[in-house]
Every structure is written in structure tokens, then in C-alpha cells.
Design brief:
alpha+beta; two-stranded antiparallel ribbon; 43% helix; globular
């Protein structure tokens, strides 16, 4: 987690101090998709404050945001779509882009990052319970050995965008104390930006937008009923995925298509035969297929 934390620490200072702080984002080329997202974000922040690097930093940001339209939460041929152990780092990056562009008045970057959030919140809504808990399959599952669990950041961030953006009070999320105090832990920086740094009117542009499905690297299928939902991938192009996620709304039970003895480095691929997709609770009344991008 060192790189995610280091890049997030730079982002916090870029927002708090209004300076470029470090060119680390422009210099970094490797790492998994969440690190690349953070690198593009802080590279953009550096460029905004550094005239000689402005074109490069902004250009990389725009390229990244365009690529996200055809590979949501992916980079190249690796997907982190739906990740429950690394979502906070994506939240940090995409909220960071949003704040830096809003402060700069950079409408082209704002358009790209708003679109990312609309697509993310749309698929979260498809895979959420009536209480607003997102139960979604995807990369780098929290079920694996020693994996972090960042599902709460996703649920709370979603509620913040809609509550502040629409001016509503319910459902009221429990905001962590460090976020309220303006001194968030590094894995809650995205929540701090959404809660305290972005204007409510800006959040409203996403909260009131019509739904739009993302384009994942792998096809996502969802069946819903009044009693619950199930969402699944038959194949997944990323590390250690939960191949399915199942939720019963009356009991609050959740199931995930992964095993606790899996290592975090386990490759994806085809869903194992011993992880059949369960039926949705009750009688399904809605079926949605979000098709993968066409492969070159």
C-alpha cells in the first residue's frame, strides 16, 4: 500500500496548500490500475501549478478519463472494476480529480470526471440494497487472505454525493470522525473531499444526471427482485475477483463468489466450476447485462 498512500499524501497537500508539491505522478508509469489513477490525478495537480509541465499533466489526465469510458476502473488489459479491497484509492483519485478541476475551472476535465462518477454511481445503484449498501462483484475481493475491506467507503461516499447533491437528509450516512474533523486517514481522503471540499452544487450535477452504464473489461450480468439481487461475471480480467455477489434484502445476508484461502495475487480468468452463480432471492423482475468493451 506504500505507493497508494504516498500519492494520496501528495494529493492532500495539493488540495490543502494549493501547490504542486511533487512531480511523482508524472514520473510514475508502473503499478496496478488504482495507483495509475492516483498518479494521473497528482500529476494533473502538479501540472496545474507548474507551467512547464501543465500540458503533460493535463494531457495525461484527459487521456486517462477518455480511456475510462471504454474500460471502467481498468488500465490496459487489467480490471479493478467493483474492487472491495482497493475502492478507497479509486475514490481518492476520482474525487481528487474532481476537486482539482473544480478549483481550476477546467471544464473539459470536469466533464470527464463527472461522467466517471455518473457511471460508477449508476452501476452501484443497480447492485445496491434498499438501505444503500452496495453488493457488487469484482476485482481484488475483500474475501481473500489478508485483504482490506473498503466497502464502507463506497457506501458512505455514495450517500454523501446524493445527500449533498440533492439536498436530502436520508439515508444519513455515518461519517467517520476523522473525515468530519478534516484530518482523514489516507484511505478516507476521498470521503473528505466529497464531504467537505466539493461544493454541493457540483455534486448535484452528478446526483441529478440520468443513469449511464459503464463499459467494463468483462461483461457484468445482474438479476434483481424485490427480495434481493445477484450480479456476476463469467470471466474476469483482473486479480483475485469475487465472481458473483448475492444479497437478500430481508435478512441482510451477502454471499460472494470467492474463497477465503485465495491469495491476493490469484489471477482471474473463467469463473471456477465450484462457484456456481446462485439464483436471485425471490422472483427476478429485472435482468441487466452490461456488455464488455470490444477487444482489439
Amino acid at each position: 500500500m506504500g505507493t497508494e498512500k504516498d500519492l494520496t499524501a501528495v494529493l492532500v497537500r495539493q488540495i490543502s496548500e494549493g501547490r504542486g508539491i511533487s512531480p511523482a505522478g508524472l514520473r510514475r508509469s508502473g503499478g496496478p490500475p488504482n495507483q495509475k489513477a492516483l498518479a494521473r490525478c497528482v500529476g494533473y495537480g502538479w501540472g496545474l501549478a507548474t507551467p512547464e509541465d501543465r500540458e503533460e499533466g493535463r494531457g495525461r489526465a484527459l487521456e486517462f478519463l477518455r480511456d475510462q469510458r471504454q474500460g471502467h476502473m481498468g488500465f490496459g488489459r487489467t480490471s479493478e472494476f467493483g474492487t472491495s479491497s482497493h475502492f478507497a484509492w479509486w475514490q481518492n483519485a476520482m474525487a481528487g480529480f474532481w476537486k482539482l478541476a473544480e478549483r481550476e475551472g477546467d471544464e473539459e476535465v470536469l466533464e470527464g470526471v463527472r461522467g466517471w462518477w455518473v457511471r460508477e454511481l449508476s452501476v452501484e445503484g443497480l447492485c445496491s440494497t434498499p438501505e444503500g449498501k452496495v453488493v457488487i462483484p469484482g476485482a481484488r475481493t475483500h474475501v481473500a487472505q489478508g485483504a482490506a475491506d473498503q466497502r464502507k467507503q463506497r457506501d458512505v461516499g455514495r450517500a454523501i454525493v446524493f445527500n449533498r447533491g440533492l439536498g436530502t437528509e436520508a439515508p444519513r450516512p455515518r461519517i467517520p470522525r476523522d473525515v468530519l474533523a478534516g484530518s482523514p486517514s489516507l484511505d478516507r481522503v476521498g470521503l473528505w473531499i466529497l464531504h467537505s471540499e466539493l461544493p454541493a452544487a457540483e455534486l448535484g450535477k452528478v446526483a441529478t444526471a440520468p443513469p449511464e452504464w459503464p463499459v467494463p473489461l468483462d461483461t457484468l450480468s445482474v438479476r434483481r427482485s424485490p427480495a434481493g439481487h445477484v450480479a456476476w461475471f463469467d470471466t474476469f480480467t483482473g486479480l483475485c475477483p469475487s465472481f458473483f455477489a448475492w444479497a437478500d434484502y430481508s435478512t441482510g445476508e451477502e454471499r460472494y463468489g470467492a474463497r477465503g484461502d485465495w491469495r491476493k495475487s490469484r489471477p482471474g480468468g473463467a469463473r471456477p466450476a465450484d462457484l456456481p452463480v446462485p439464483e436471485a432471492p425471490g422472483e427476478a423482475v429485472e435482468s441487466v447485462v452490461i456488455a464488455a468493451r470490444e477487444r482489439n
